[in-house]
Design a protein that fits this description.
The chain has 22 helices and 23 strands. The strands form six sheets. It has a seven-stranded parallel sheet with strand order 11-12-10-13-14-9-15, sandwiched between helices. Strands 16-23-22-19-21-20 form a six-stranded parallel sheet, with helices on both faces. Strands 1-6-3-4 form a four-stranded antiparallel sheet, with no helix packed on it. The longest helix is centred in the last third of the chain and has 20 residues. The protein binds zinc ion (ZN). Zinc ion binds next to helix 16.
């Protein structure tokens, strides 16, 4: 039977096809069963036939249509999806052309001043970069992409870094700031989190502060005076702040690099558009310094938008892989799942109970279900709290702080929660309901496992979620785009292709099926299929984290010590050392400063502040 769909493609686009299906290209018909194929195409159409199990294009498999009359031979996607994959009407630089200045009323809100002459590049001797990396951050090697980004900043080149959460984005501008001298301005969207970002930098011995509307007048004046005096290596500001009185102060400061964090917020094509980001348009010409735009998630369209909105000049685009193998992706359809009836509430309870004491986030569609889920978890003795826009600001801040400081283990939240939270030890993320886009889903699961340790991501979904999400679609220009995102997310959940490969393909990256980190490629041994007693579930989790029994006890003791030290200094525990660093200590058993310094995540400032206490704890444990 030859059911056929024609798919329009743009010149140069590479279709990624996932089987099984029949493919007819230039008159040749091939039947592909669970195969992957990349086809470079000229403008035209490719016909994709259907076999019994479905058919797929673009890395995303579709469920077969309900009946044959749904297949009409016309294009499955006439919604611009393929044009999006191929990029938007690029100009000669490969990026879309920005609308003329003045077409956006927000764009002129920031004073432009006289454009400055670009500063001379910073020349480094060979070992300086690595020396500073080891000294300040305690790492012996860069993670992928970091070195390229830092070197671009030092040589005065603009850079667009698309690096997934957990790949060490903030290290790039922190290290560049130290090496480049003067002050680095960090534009960050979330005022509530600036204090934590600054605390983390200060813990590493970097001189940093933030200036925003939350600060008292007197304190603000002092910080501004120190900024003018060149005392800060890093200054965090909100985009709104640049248009206000702070704007003129910055002209007097020795700004040498500008880092725009969460840069996707500048694009209305992204999932987190913030109008205030449009005020950043004249940053480049105003300061005459390199601009480093950073984001964890950006489709090609969003990338182009960031580059043009920020006026980046021949930017170096650094993109590291979207594949994060330490995120184990589990997907469950609500209702029947094979022989198992999925009752979401029970399963969330089991997942959280078997990870007692560990940090997790449960995302829900409604405030009501955030509340009821949190209440249910508390009834199981789990330290859980709800977080949503219906709570007052004070409560929200308290929930966030408690979570960051490990006082609360599980936060049940609407999507309002989590952006910018740089908490390294989130061990699981659960979507109680289907999120409204694949981009949002990836952003949310990305909050797990930032320390690189294995973390589980559970997605529960149903067609009813699609209906409910479509009811929530806001009326306006992008109504059809919102609906498209919802359907694409559903396609992803239903797909039999590798979850990681599908997500990567959505962002324009081609990877092999992951083989071990998703429920399509491997048996992840989820407790949902076992008869989970807390003991059995715990055993399976411990097996996964692979710490020898003795080391595990010491690890727990070091965690206790960390909690005490963090409490004394009123810091989140992970800012002292993250879990990965403590695990390494528990296995390497350092006995002096040099050995301690060899551990990843231990820098000079950390040794000075905490070194002796951790060495003493290890020595004491060994002498028992
Ligand atoms: Zn996979």
């Amino acid at each position: 039977m030859a059911y056929r769909h024609a798919v329009s493609v743009c010149a140069g686009v590479q279709l990624v096809l996932t089987g099984p299906f029949e493919l007819r290209l230039h008159g040749v018909i091939a039947t592909l069963r669970r195969a992957w194929l990349m086809v470079p195409c000229r403008r035209g159409s490719v016909e994709v036939g259907r076999s019994r199990e479905g058919y797929g294009v673009g890395g995303i498999s579709y469920a077969p249509p309900v009946n044959d009359s749904d297949i009409d031979g016309s294009s499955q996607r006439d919604d611009g999806y393929w044009e999006m994959l191929a990029g938007q009407a690029p100009d000669e630089t490969g990026f879309p052309v920005r609308p003329p200045a003045g077409s956006d009323p927000q764009a002129s809100a920031m004073p432009t001043g006289e454009p400055k002459t670009p500063r001379a590049p910073v020349h480094l001797d060979g070992d300086e970069l690595f020396g500073e990396l080891a000294d300040t951050f305690g790492y012996g090697a860069f993670r992928p992409g970091q070195q390229e980004v830092i070197e671009a900043a030092l040589s005065g080149v603009d850079c667009l870094a698309v690096m997934p959460t957990g790949s060490g984005k903030s290290l790039t501008y922190q290290l560049a700031a130290r090496l480049i001298g003067g002050t680095t301005l960090v534009v960050s969207p979330l005022i509530a989190l600036m204090k934590d970002q600054v605390d983390a930098a200060v813990e590493m011995g970097i001189s940093a502060t933030f200036i925003n509307s939350s600060i008292e007048f007197e304190e603000r004046s002092q910080r501004i005076a120190r900024l003018k005096g060149g005392e800060y290596e890093l200054v965090y500001v909100a985009p709104e702040g640049l248009g206000a009185s702070l704007g003129s102060v910055l002209d007097e400061a020795d700004v040498r690099l500008i880092a725009v964090d969460e840069a996707h917020c500048i694009s209305q094509w992204g999932h987190d558009f913030r109008p205030a980001y449009r005020q950043l348009v004249h940053l480049k010409s105003r300061f005459g310094v390199p601009v480093l735009a950073l984001t964890a998630t950006a489709t090609q369209r969003v990338r182009g938008d960031i580059a043009s909105q920020l006026d980046l000049v021949d930017p170096l685009v650094v993109q590291t892989s979207f594949f994060r193998p330490n995120l184990k992706l589990h997907v469950y359809k609500k209702g029947k799942h094979g022989d198992t009836q999925i009752r979401v509430k029970d399963y969330i309870g089991k997942i959280c109970a078997s990870r007692r004491g560990e940090s997790g986030i449960v995302y829900t569609l409604s405030r009501k279900s955030a509340e009821s889920t949190a209440q249910y978890l508390r009834s199981l003795g789990i330290r859980a709290a709800a977080y949503h826009a219906g709570l007052d600001a004070e409560t929200r801040t308290a929930v966030q702080d408690d979570f960051i400081r490990d006082e609360t283990n599980v936060v049940c939240a609407t999507v309002a929660f989590g952006m910018g939270i740089d908490k390294s030890n989130v061990r699981f993320v659960i979507h109680r309901d289907m999120p409204k886009s694949l981009e949002g889903y990836y952003q949310e699961i990305g909050r797990a496992g930032r320390d690189g340790l294995d973390s589980d991501c559970f997605l529960f979904y149903s067609w009813a979620d699609v209906i409910q999400l479509e009811r929530m679609v806001s009326v306006g220009d992008d109504e059809s785009s919102q609906r498209r995102h919802i359907r694409r997310m559903y396609d992803h959940a239903e797909s039999e292709a590798c979850r990681h490969a599908t997500i990567a393909a959505y962002f324009g990256e081609w990877i092999e099926p992951c083989g071990s980190s998703c429920d399509q490629c491997a048996d992840l041994g989820s407790e949902l299929h076992e008869a989970p007693t807390p003991r059995a579930a715990k055993a399976s989790k411990e097996r996964k984290q692979e710490l020898p029994a003795g080391a595990r006890d010491l690890f727990e003791e070091l965690r206790t010590l960390r909690r005490r030290l963090a409490g004394d200094r009123q810091l989140p525990a992970y800012m002292v050392f993250n879990d990965a660093t403590l695990r390494e200590m528990a296995t390497a058993l350092p006995s002096n400063h040099d050995e301690l310094l060899a551990i990843n995540g231990v820098g000079a400032k950390k040794i000075e502040t905490y070194g002796d206490e951790f060495l003493a704890a290890i020595e004491e444990w060994l002498s028992r």
